[in-house]
Specification:
The chain is an alpha+beta fold. Helix 1 crosses helix 2.
């Protein structure tokens, strides 16, 4: 969910159905154009020598089907960079979902510059939280200053930085990262990020304080009462979600509350400050998934983990999930979004090599506060955390960012979503 072309207020006329890619299970759907289907299917691996385990990964990106703009570019991009700063224990995985007329340019710009800025930051390993936030804000500023017109275009960014046996997950927008956790005879999906949309009360309150009108398209068009500011939940109301509009205009209509770029939406509270979560890996962490909302629009996190766990080869898992996502898009709409997914398997991490508890299910928060632009991190435990890291913003953005927290303390903690239907492990 996001902005223009499936991510904004644009309505789509009816059209004939299209394909699901090269997934053989859905043979009744014929591919529109094979050159768009299921690319980037290599299998790679990289060691993490400090903790004696290996990351084995694959990435797949699939062009969406848009009947009215069949030659439209794939606006998704991805970045995988191993051995950041020449360190064999530091690796980066990111997915960037562009939107708007220049969405492809925005996502490609951000996927290049974000990791470059991170890699050049000498404080990265000493203070990864501040380095991550600074990199997002610097990339956002550079995109504004570039030749790319980002007034009504931008990108989401979901990224995972592996530092030894630790994961730092930085999210801006509504793409998602999920980790698979073995819990007895089950494999549970634990979200490493939370979608930043007006469905979230904290994000709704923040953008309202920045002057945004929050209305669904039906409300804007007079089909529903605009005074009813209750849209249910994203699972049931995703077809006509609440969107952000300037006070006296019919734009930009973004269904997200954070992004990189989107300089017009930035004036009403759409910011590039990432929410950062932290995970200390244990042997119970099996793999993690980083994907655009083309995957998660119709597939819950638990279903994605179930499907990924059914394959030993992440290439096959990526293909199966992309194929199912494509099929579900065409069952619900006459188009599909671009689909990008990275699956990273955690192989060989032993109890002696891990630096945390045996179970990955006990999640307690690390509280991070910003005091005059600096971070004061108070660690409650070395398990999964969700926190919004505050950084230097413009006066208006800073006011919008902080005013919501006055009744909640300066720390913003997002609770771990409840796991959905678990996958049963075979005995033995």
């Amino acid at each position: 969910m996001g902005c223009v072309h499936g991510k904004c207020c644009i309505r789509y006329p009816s059209s004939s159905s299209s394909s699901d890619g090269d997934s053989g299970r859905h043979g009744e759907m014929k591919p529109f154009n094979n050159r768009h289907i299921l690319t980037q299917r290599s299998l790679e691996s990289v060691p993490v020598p400090s903790h004696k385990f290996t990351l084995q990964y694959s990435v797949l990106t699939q062009h969406g089907y848009y009947p009215d703009t069949v030659d439209r570019e794939n606006q998704d991009s991805f970045c995988i960079k191993t051995q950041i700063q020449g360190n064999p224990d530091v690796h980066f995985f990111g997915v960037f979902d562009g939107h708007g007329q220049f969405g492809a340019e925005c996502s490609n710009f951000v996927k290049d510059r974000l990791v470059e800025i991170l890699s050049s930051d000498s404080t990265l390993l000493d203070d990864p939280l501040n380095a991550y936030t600074s990199a997002f804000l610097a990339t956002n500023t550079e995109l504004h200053d570039s030749e790319i017109d980002d007034t009504m275009s931008g990108t989401t960014a979901i990224t995972v930085l592996v530092v030894g046996d630790a994961l730092y997950v930085a999210n801006v927008g509504d793409s998602r990262a999920v980790i698979a956790v073995k819990d007895g005879d089950q494999i549970l999906a634990e979200n490493l990020s939370q979608d930043q949309t007006p469905f979230r009360k904290d994000e709704y309150d923040r953008v309202k304080l920045c002057g945004a009108r929050v209305l669904s398209v039906d409300q804007v068009e007079g089909l529903k009462d605009p005074n009813i500011q209750n849209w249910g939940d994203e699972e049931s109301q995703g077809g006509d979600p609440p969107r952000l509009w300037v006070p006296n205009g019919m734009y930009p209509g973004t269904a997200f509350t954070r992004s990189v770029g989107d300089s017009t939406a930035e004036k009403i509270g759409v910011i590039a400050v990432p929410e950062i979560s932290f995970v200390r890996l244990t042997p119970n962490h099996l793999f993690f998934v980083v994907a655009s909302d083309g995957v998660f629009e119709f597939l819950p996190s638990q279903t994605v983990v179930d499907m990924a766990a059914a394959y030993t080869d992440p290439r096959d898992a990526c293909a199966a999930i992309a194929g199912e996502s494509y099929k579900l898009w065409l069952e619900h709409e006459n188009r599909t979004d671009d689909i990008t997914i990275i699956i990273v398997q955690i192989k060989g991490l032993s109890k002696s090599g891990a630096g945390a508890l045996d179970s990955g299910v006990d999640y307690r928060p690390m509280i991070m506060r910003s005091i005059k632009g600096s971070l004061d991190a108070s660690t409650v435990s070395e398990s999964e955390t969700y926190a919004s890291v505050r950084s230097d913003l413009s006066d208006k953005q800073q006011s919008c960012q902080h005013s919501v927290s006055t009744n909640r303390s300066s720390a913003f903690i997002v609770p771990s979503p409840m796991p959905q239907r678990p996958l049963q492990l075979d005995e033995g």
